[in-house]
Each structure stands twice: as structure tokens, then as C-alpha cells.
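agent: user wants the structure for Transcriptional regulator, MarR family from Trujillonella endophytica. delegating to structure tool.
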Amino acid sequence: MSVDRPIDTHEAYVVVEREIGLLLRRSRAMSTRLARELHPDLDGAAYGLLALLADAGPLRATDLVVRLGLDKSTVSRQVSSLVDLGLVSREADPTDGRAQVLTPSAEGARQLTAIREARRARWEEDLSHWPVADVARLGELLGRFNRLGEAQIRGTAAPTG
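agent: tool returned. relaying C-alpha cells verbatim.
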């Protein structure tokens, strides 16, 4: 799309839908590959759950259900898989001893960090010909887009900026 001509609103949304669809398909494939690097028996969805726990944990399984917008049985199955593989630990919730919180185990955190560092290096290599301002803007726009999705999952108003 050229900035020299007026922007067609419908076409802009068509392009966004197409490009996000492609991004999501590639993301699923990448998550599956990264999960296999962590452990041959790990599925791609569980990799995403482990990454969320590393970024936002410790969390209860119910928190994961809300944050990911998945059903309880799916999250339970993925958590069990991660615990069985030694990648996630369950501990008593310090605020409510009846509940459990989930955190990456030392081994899970180590493996996830190694994979993320390799992936970040790959992004840096792939985007090295982009101006740094463009990379920063892409990160900013993706963050804004993700906050919109989080607001939709929570059923709250979308953030405005």
C-alpha cells in the first residue's frame, strides 16, 4: 500500500486480517518447533503456557484460563504435561494455602531462557536491515495489539493508546 494515495479503509482491514492470519499460522508452527526443542513430548500450546508463567508467574491455573482464554480442561492437561516433564513446579499459594501456584522449574526456566535467547538473536539477524526505530515501532504496535486482545478476553474496554 502506498502512502501517496488515499488509504482505502476496507483494504486496510483486509491487509491486517491477511497478515495477522499469516503471523498466527507461522507462530503456531514456531511454537511447535520450540516446544520440541524444550522436550520431544511437549506440544506447542504448552510452550506458550510455560512462556506466560516465566513472564507473569507465579500464577494459579485459573489465572492461566482467564489470561489465555482457554477452557479449564485444556489448561489442566497442559499444566500436567509441563509438571510431568519437570518444566513447571506446583507450590502452595502464599495467599491461600488451599490453592496452588505454578512457576517454571529451574530446568524449565533454564531451557526457556536458552531458547528465547536463540530466538531473539534470530530476530535481530532477520531484522538487522531495518532501522532500529522501525523495530521499536513494531514492538510498540504489537504490544498495543496484544493489550486489545487481553481486554477482549477479560471483557473490559480496550486500552486507548
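agent: one observation worth passing along. The mean pLDDT is 88.
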